[in-house]
Specification:
By secondary structure, this protein is an all-alpha fold. It has one domain. The protein is built from three helices and no strands. The protein is elongated and about 55 Å long.
């Protein structure tokens, strides 16, 4: 148990920035989704993709989901 905790604290400086970036990207994508009037596909589906698919979901939304006018 103590060895597992030591390994976890060793990896924390690597994992923490990735988790922070993922969280910020998800929040920005959700805010954009709420403010956008029209998307390519239903908004409820994009919300699920953004939240469930982690880093790739928000990126897919920004590339594919937002309708370019």
């Amino acid at each position: 148990m103590a060895l597992e905790i030591a390994k976890l604290t060793e990896m924390l400086p690597i994992i923490a920035p990735i988790l922070i970036i993922q969280f910020i990207l998800m929040i920005v994508a959700i805010i954009s989704l709420v403010k956008t009037e029209a998307t390519n596909g239903p908004k409820w589906l994009w919300a699920i993709i953004i939240v469930v698919v982690n880093i790739i979901g928000p990126v897919l939304y920004f590339i594919i989901g937002r309708r370019q006018e």
